[in-house]
Design goal:
Shape of chain B: globular
Oligomer: heterodimer
Distance between the termini of chain B: 18 Å
Order of helices and strands of chain B: EHEHEHEHEH
Number of domains of chain B: 1
CATH topology of the largest domain in chain A: Rossmann fold
Largest sheet of chain A: 7 strands, parallel
CATH superfamily of the largest domain in chain A: P-loop containing nucleotide triphosphate hydrolases
Number of helices of chain A: 12
Strand content of chain A: 5-15%
Order of helices and strands of chain A: HHHEHEEEHEHEEHEEEHHHHH
Helix content of chain B: 40-55%
CATH architecture of chain B: 3-Layer(aba) Sandwich
Radius of gyration of chain B: 13 Å
Radius of gyration of chain A: 24 Å
CATH superfamily of chain B: Cobalamin-binding domain
CATH topology of chain B: Rossmann fold
Structural class of chain B: alpha/beta
Strand order of the largest sheet of chain B: 2-1-3-4-5
Distance between the termini of chain A: 31 Å
Largest interface: A-B, 33 and 34 residues
CATH class of chain B: Alpha Beta
CATH architecture of the largest domain in chain A: 3-Layer(aba) Sandwich
Number of strands of chain B: 5
Shape of chain A: globular
Helix content of chain A: 40-55%
Largest sheet of chain B: 5 strands, parallel
Number of strands of chain A: 10
CATH class of the largest domain in chain A: Alpha Beta
């Protein structure tokens, strides 16, 4: 087992594409045999630049990713792509259609595309996305483009999972109030107004510009009814000159504006490194990932301690409103604690194996 | 949670643009709980083989209505074999004469579905082909 893991890790480091593909599948299926491989590869990750691409369904994410990848290839970079599409909450199946827009990338050894179903995750990514990115990173892909599911307002996990986040907007969706709501627009390092050849694109650009102006810590002079005024905010230090997300316009189907987006990604990367923010983001990213790993492990561990019949019984009492859910949680924690003292303590590896009781929801 | 999901690549090799059948099957397999990677029109056998490798699929479903099946399918099977992916099951749908079906199945095609095939039957055939492998 250990030798198989180190052999697989070796293959990934050599850039063996089939080993890479198979490992991603194992990660997706939470196959415990993938863990020692991931553990062996961890020290070899951290070189790739992770670029998140998010935006509403149909705004042109996949087509833009296709064009970005082509441009990056022209500049000689190895490009890995993870494209996430939603899993059906009813059948558990998924239709992954991002490759349709990426036909141009076929036959290029410097590109690896993996489609991924969200499998119940709600933040716009799949649970396996982070590990798939690590594998691509270890395999030597220099830029890793992560395309989220078509995102609405609050699917912001991508910001924590990537170094540079692109938020894609298309004309004709919402007014300037949409632009000052909390959520997806706050996470952008670069705004891309795609389909900029369509009418209304300039309105979208203007709404984004307005949002940025409203958000600026305005200590300078401004005009009010023609009079020059000076804003003086008490107790607020002027922010150091940081990064303000550029608002770029593209027409993905013709490739217009793509080189500018790639240039912006590179200058954002340079900014992160120069300002020292890279370390801060990297630490936050790894912390978030570690926390969710810990949470999954704890949940698996906890559920493994509760006999299924007992869990069912408690649940049906809650459904029948004979017990409130707050007391039910208390009850389950008490049972788990008692089990922990008497019974054997299942570890993560055990919890992942086949004898694991069926996990609900 | 850690159940193994069946991954299927649906592709249309060749030059005909009739993708209705491919879409109907893709949708039906999605509803059968599978993860379907839909690649769209005008795929070469090389593109299909590469996508199947990267996506690590269990099954490839081809839709051909142009009559090019005797050119496209053997080439794909050959590529899969030389790429060490002979374990990937290949299904075919479209307009295929009976005498070709026999030849294709001998070459290694799992099953060929003609017009009017029941999508539930297709999903079941895929499930069985994959489970016999595991």
């Amino acid at each position: 087992m250990v030798t198989e893991a180190s052999r697989l890790a070796e293959l990934v480091l050599e850039g063996d594409r089939r080993a890479l593909a198979r490992l991603i599948t194992r990660i997706e299926n939470e196959n415990p045999s993938a863990l020692p491989v991931m553990a062996a590869l961890y020290s070899r990750t951290g070189r790739g630049h992770i670029v998140g691409v998010t935006g509403a369904p149909g705004c042109g994410k996949s087509t833009l990713v296709n064009e970005l990848a082509k441009q990056l290839r022209r500049e000689g970079r190895m490009v890995g792509i993870v494209a996430v599409d939603p899993t059906s909450p009813f059948s558990g199946g998924a239709l992954l259609g991002d490759r349709i827009r990426m036909r141009d990338l076929a036959g290029d050894e410097g590109i690896f595309i993996r489609s991924m179903a969200s499998r119940g995750s709600l933040g716009g990514l799949a649970r396996a996305t982070g590990d798939a990115v690590k594998l691509l990173d270890a395999a030597g892909f220099e830029v890793i483009l992560v395309e989220t599911v078509g995102a609405g307002q609050a699917e912001v996990d991508i910001a924590k999972a990537s170094h540079t986040t692109l938020v894609i907007q298309a004309p004709g969706m919402g007014d300037d109030i949409q632009a000052i709501k909390a959520g997806i627009l706050e996470i952008a390092d670069i705004f891309v107004v795609n389909k900029a050849d369509l009418p209304g694109a300039e309105n979208t650009v203007r709404a984004l510009q307005m949002m940025q102006r409203l958000g600026r810590d305005n200590n300078g002079p401004y005009r009010h009814h023609g009079r020059l005024m000076r804003a003086n905010r008490v107790g607020q230090a002027a922010e150091p000159p940081g990064w303000e997300a550029p608002i770029l316009q593209t027409v993905s189907i013709s490739g217009e504006g793509i080189a500018e987006v790639v240039a912006a990604i590179q200058s954002h990367r340079a900014h992160l490194h120069q300002s020292g923010e890279f370390q801060i983001r990297e630490a936050a990213r790894i912390e978030a990932e570690f926390e969710s790993m810990l949470r999954d492990t704890l949940l698996n561990d906890l559920l493994a301690r509760i006999p299924t019949i007992e869990l069912d019984a408690i649940l049906s009492q809650v459904v029948a409103r004979e017990m409130d859910p707050y007391s039910a949680v208390d009850r389950i924690m008490t049972i788990a604690a008692a089990e922990g003292e008497t019974g054997p303590r299942p570890h993560r590896a055990h919890a992942l194996e086949a004898e694991k009781p069926e996990v609900r929801r | 949670m850690s159940e193994r999901k069946i991954r299927v690549l649906i592709a249309k090799p060749g030059l005909d643009g009739h993708d209705r059948g491919a879409k109907v099957v893709a949708r039906a397999l999605r509803d059968a709980g599978m993860e379907v990677i839909y690649t769209g029109l005008r795929q070469t056998p090389e593109m299909i083989c590469e996508a199947a490798m990267q996506e690590d699929v269990d099954v490839i479903g081809l839709s051909i209505l142009s009559g090019a099946h005797m050119a496209q399918v053997p080439r794909l099977l050959e590529l899969l074999k030389s790429g060490g992916m002979a374990d990937v099951k290949v299904f075919l749908g479209g307009i295929v004469p009976d005498e070709d079906i026999r030849v294709l199945k001998q070459m290694g095609v799992q099953e060929v579905f003609g017009p009017g095939a029941n999508t539930k039957v297709i999903a079941e055939a895929i499930r069985q082909a994959v489970s016999s492998e595991r």
